Amino acid sequence: MQRQTMKIVIAPDSFKECLTALEAADAIEAGLRRVWPDADCVKVPMADGGEGTVRSLVDATGGKIIKKQVTGPLGKPVDGFFGLLGGGDTAVIEMAAAAGIDYVPRDQRNPLKTTTFGVGELIRAAIDLGVRHVILGLGGSATNDGGCGMAQALGARLLDSEGNTIGRGGAALAGLASIDLSELDSRIAEVRFDIATDVTNPLIGSKGASAIFGPQKGASPEDVRVLDEALGHFARIVSRDLGIAIDQVPGAGAAGGLGAGALCFLGGTIHPGVDAVIRAAGLEEKMRGASLVITGEGKIDGQTIFGKTPVGVARYAKKFGLPVVALAGSLADGSRSVYSHGVDALFSIVPGAVSLDEALAHAETNLTRTAENLARVWCLAQHLPNE
């Protein structure tokens, strides 16, 4: 009996704590090939701008990881990294690789003092390699300094009322009196910066960087007040000296206000994270001629519709009228909401009642088995031979 040959686009995010996006795509492909050994499986590892974005885009484009020691959020050296994508003119940087909360022990978390200086050092290292396009992923930060540390690393002069450089950290912004960009790395103007984030919070206020994200970085209620006032003061100085309004721009509050800093110091444009990744990976073009799109991530719930990978992938797939199936480690409350955002079917890969440790340990096997079952169900629905 003649086998059905079809093109399948496999575009999952990582399954946190167990599989990278590429490993997840490989596991899905292995399951599909048990049913369709001759299928054209196009694997496009995905991310939404947060942790795993560098790895996903490097894998998707045949790029490489560049390691670079930089200044960590506490001012001590850390081993940072960024991705140089295939082609060599685009870099993807996760701010957390230089200023992430994982670099700070829980008892030392203090956004009054932590800095994004290392993020600027990664940007400079990328530009030194001839990069002319940077995708900067925001998320997982330990900081609340509005990206001022990043700017200082790139040559910006942030001065107090006596003309001295202000210190590092969110609290230091309260002493900012003027901004001088005359010594900012001139190559910044030649680079296009796409800022990838899955949050839309403004810089200041009750929904701003300090109020919403400060507590998880170690800020007390009083610290939140100090930080919010400092960011507000920073925004006023930016408006006066640079002529840019940053206080209420959606996404400006991402990563402790690094979104705002990227706007005013880098001339960046804020995008939903998954859209930036989809464009860089060329996913839309790879969907042409496909019969099926498979996506997924570790958990699908009511928050998935707010900029997460499965819905982002589904939105592009619907441009071609393609069916979309999402696989997940768990389907939590609100997961059915994705049905109204382009996902046609959901499957949990967990086979039964197991502990989290067991689920993580067997994620690859479970994902492969579920992909095989998906292919068999597809064959039944299409009246196709399945082996």
From TrEMBL:
UniProt keyword list: Kinase, Transferase
InterPro entries per record: Glyc_kinase_flavodox-like_fold, Glycerate_kinase, Glycerate_kinase_RE-like, Glycerate_kinase_sf
GO annotation, biological process: organic acid phosphorylation
Any one GO MF annotation of this record: glycerate kinase activity
Pfam families, alphabetized: Gly_kinase (PF02595)
Nuclease listed as a keyword: no
Coiled-coil stretches noted in the UniProt entry, renumbered to this chain: none
Family statement: Belongs to the glycerate kinase type-1 family.
Name by which UniProt lists this protein: Glycerate kinase
Organism: Sporolactobacillus putidus
